[in-house]
Write a structure and sequence with these properties.
The chain has 7 helices and no strands. α2 packs antiparallel against α3, α3 packs across α4 and α5 runs antiparallel to α6. It is globular, with a radius of gyration of 22 Å. 8% of the residues are buried.
Length: 203
């Protein structure tokens, strides 16, 4: 019968490798057992969710690049739509960057996750903080009582969100900094200066 997880197969034992399943796979294995239909179903659903998560970058970055290009913070070519009416130059730029990162980090999830997690929580924290500023601006205007209550509720939600994501950002920065997260903090100011330089060039 199949080996239970935790016992290395002769193949991995001979190579000195210790493969580790994801937490979801471990929970599914403990609940339903290995090589069962529910186990493989959960793995398939997990893979589909991760595929959709990866696809969001290809949906979002080309649009973001076009906005930056319109504001002269990125090359104007990113604002050009291709034959399929998408911002194809943004898709190509993102694809090339992804391939370069895969080669540099040898497709190691352990190494790449450090870049991902910092970038995600920086974005979340900035997004939530920006929404708090947005609601503060609206509150300075004249609003009906029901509108003011709605805006105050929305601001409270975004304030809590900013506090939570900011806390997670600080924690993962401290715990993952020496594991490769420092690269993000090197890349962010470089990208900032690069965009400022592009803006000065167009001005």
């Amino acid at each position: 019968g199949p080996e239970r997880w935790g016992t290395l197969s002769p193949k991995f034992a001979a190579c000195g490798e210790d493969p580790q399943r994801s937490l979801i796979a471990q929970m599914a294995s403990a609940t339903y057992g290995n090589n069962t239909i529910p186990f493989f179903l959960i793995q398939g659903v997990t893979a589909a969710v991760l595929l959709l998560a990866a696809n969001t970058a290809f949906n979002g970055f080309p649009l973001l690049g076009s906005v930056l290009a319109t504001d002269h913070y990125a090359p104007k070519s990113l604002a050009t739509r291709g034959d399929r009416l998408i911002f194809s130059n943004g898709v190509i730029a993102l694809s090339v960057t992804a391939m370069v990162l895969l080669v540099i980090f040898q497709a190691s999830v352990t190494a790449l996750i450090q870049l991902y997690i910092i970038g995600v929580f920086v974005s979340f924290t900035l997004g939530q903080t920006g929404m708090v500023r947005h609601w503060n601006g609206i509150l300075r205007g004249s609003l009906r009582p029901d509108e003011r209550r709605r805006v105050l509720r929305s601001r409270a939600i975004n304030t809590v969100g900013a506090a939570l994501t900011g806390t997670v950002l600080v924690i993962v920065t401290i715990t993952k900094f020496t594991h490769g997260a420092y690269l993000v903090f090197i890349a962010m100011p470089i990208l900032f200066l690069l965009m400022r330089g592009i803006r000065r060039h167009y001005d």
